[in-house]
Amino acid sequence: MVTLKGQNIYLRALEPDDLEFVYSIENDESIWEVSNTQTPYSRFLIRQYLENAHQDIYEAKQLRLAICKNQDFSAIGLIDLFDFDPKNNRAGIGILIKDSKNRNSGIGSESLDLLIQYAFAKLNLHQLYANIDIENEVSLALFTNFGFQNIGTKKQWNLVDGQYKDEALFQLINPS
Going by fewer Cβ within 10 Å, which terminus of the chain is more open, N or C? Predict the structure, then answer.
């Protein structure tokens, strides 16, 4: 049985109470490079997004979940399935742990494991993929540890601070 609850964390749907958390992430310029964001988001737009978060993945083509520590409702990160393609049974996957104090503690690994299990067992996906900056050693190690394979490099893919950076494409095929 697949559950969205692990030993130390659980994944839950976004709630209206997550407005300030999502607002702080979407407007943190230091992570815009990771999320391909170029402009700030207003609370109004994020409130609208949260009001439509009830749409299922087949309608919205994405699933964004809050990462929470057990016994705590407050989000510490977000994990997403995006570009959901039910015809070809694939989706992109991304993860962000907001505060550095919660990084390198196993939270990202546990969250990724839960979402991979959910994607393969409940959504019957055939494959997941991740786009990772080739200099992001932590993400490269995280996804590699779960069997994602580097299937190519997109040369000069993202313009960051006036310089083009390469981005690796990682893929995980459902083993069953």
Answer: N
